[in-house]
Amino acid sequence: MRAALIVEHGSRDNVVVGEYPKPEAGAGEVLVRVKAVSLNHLDIFVRRGIPGRTLELPHISGGDVSGVVAEIGEGVTNVQPGDRVLIDPHISNKGALGEDTTGGLAEYVAVPASNLIPLPDEISFEDAAALPIAYGTAWRMLITRGKLQANETILILGASGGVGNAAVLIAKLAGAKVIAAAGSDDKAQRLKELGADYVINYNTSDFSKEVWTITGKKGADVVVDYTGKATWPKSIKATRFGGRILTCGATTGFEATTDLRYVWVREISIIGSNGWAPEDLHTLLDLVQSGKIKPVIDRVLPLEEIREAHRLIEEREFFGKILITP
Question: Which residues in the chain belong to E strands, given as ranges?
């Protein structure tokens, strides 16, 4: 089968499209014919090489996968060949699909049958594949962990990416007032069109001062910062007394400086969030099916353009999700 293969850790030149043995559905497993795969920053990290993590090369990344059941293994009863499905990327006792195990950037992928979620005909493969990692992470971070409430003011950094777009849509659905920050005026304008109440270009403005002005010198009730090192000090300053900072990652570095004076004087809560739960994906599919959420997709590319997809993500030349159709 054709697949996007990481043949060596490092630059995107090390990702090549080639032939790879077609997997088989073992006992309790299902072989899925891949229809759409959504890329994440995680795919970049896997390609570059994650410290302390050893992968057998060549490796296939890609955790956000939708498709059609092609074959079922022994003992599988919850799906049948021909069923449309979304894959939950968290593989029990094995780790993350595409990170710890062989992923979906290929024509076929084999996964445990328990990881399959029925995909209604009304939802496209592309919309479904956009959901798990980005939208699932955003839902858990804002709703389950962050307890975001109607009429609260939330600042979302990195709002033009997959998790950021999802956070904007989910925050608006929750009835919050959204301040969305991005790195260009064009992206800021698109966030406004997406529903953000206020937008900030953090490359031309000090976002903490802008938030202070927007909120009448009170600060945001909730700040979403998964950028990390580059933005963390200002995120703390942008948070109001009794406010909450939510984080699910650190794309610019983990060693972020924390001025503890602001944390104790303002009684700020710093809340970590990691991944999603299966019920979150079911909830998101229901919201997409009912039209309450429409995943933001920047573009859909063929497998042969996998390097271009990596480039777009690394150089931040995208708005929403980038998908691959093997």
Answer: 2-6, 15-19, 29-38, 64-72, 84-87, 90-91, 95-96, 108-112, 116-118, 153-156, 177-182, 198-201, 220-224, 239-247, 269-272, 297-302, 321-325
